[in-house]
Amino acid sequence: MYLLLIACAAFLATTAGGFFALRLKYRLHLVLGFSAGAVIGVAFFDLLPEALAIGSKHYTVPTLLTWSAVGFFVYLILDRAVLYYGQAAQPDGDHDHDHPPAHGALGAGSLSAHSYLDGLAIGFAFQTSSALGAIVTMGVLTHDFSDGINTMNLVLKNGGSRKDGLRWVVIDALAPAAGIGSSAIFTLPEQVLGIVLAIFFGFFLYIGASDFIPESHHAHPKVLTTTMTLIGAAVIYAAVLFIR
Question: What is the pLDDT at residue 55?
Fold first, then answer.
């Protein structure tokens, strides 16, 4: 029952982010700054410690960190592939202008795929403990709000219509529920779960450091966005201490 409620919350958070992007564009850098800190906070303060605590029963610490690096670089490759194919889809000689709607769809599709992975992360985390599930859920919900913002912005800035943006936001909003549902079909052995958490640490680290931080700081006051990033990380750190 609680997973159904979380799926609904993820849907609402993503759609709220999409509408926020339409209404309050001038505040996006602050929201993205907070989300960057929250996502990186989940990575360092929760996913990595849990991966080491669970996985070290079966693997060495260097092995687990290697899997974290695999997660980081796999996400990097996927991110670059989306960019490459988006640029390839442009008409010849048009690379100095906005990307066509197809590029926005590729970017929005990658965010939706990541949201599906977020749902899997929530489900697998609850397989470990309610405390871990609650912490991962907090980070994912914060990230889902930013996903809604980013999905809408990707579509609109690449020539898509408001209707296109809303359609992709809905797809992105449903993806975590699909991931949560998939995690309910099967359970992971402890030795596999440790590796999965290590990989997700790499995912979250890349998303926060490579996507959110540069986007939040681009052409905006650095003091405010940096402060919001630190606040986001501090909130997750405090939540981890409180729940545990």
Answer: 93
DSSP-assigned letters across all residues of 92-156:
TT-TTSPPPHHHHHHHHHHHHHHHHHHHHHHHHHHHH-HHHHHHHHHHHHHHHHHHHHHHHHHHH
- Give the domain extent around 200: 2-90+97-243
Query: What is the gyration radius of the CA atoms in the chain, in angstroms?
Result: 18
Q: 163-186: per-residue pLDDT in tens?
A: 888 888 999 899 988 988 888 787
Q: What pTM was estimated for this model as a whole?
A: 0.68
Total domains in the chain come to: 1
Confidence of residue 89 (pLDDT cuts 50, 70, 90): low
In sequence order, the 6+-apart residues with CB closer than 8 A to the CB of 13 are 141, 142, 144, 145, 148, 173
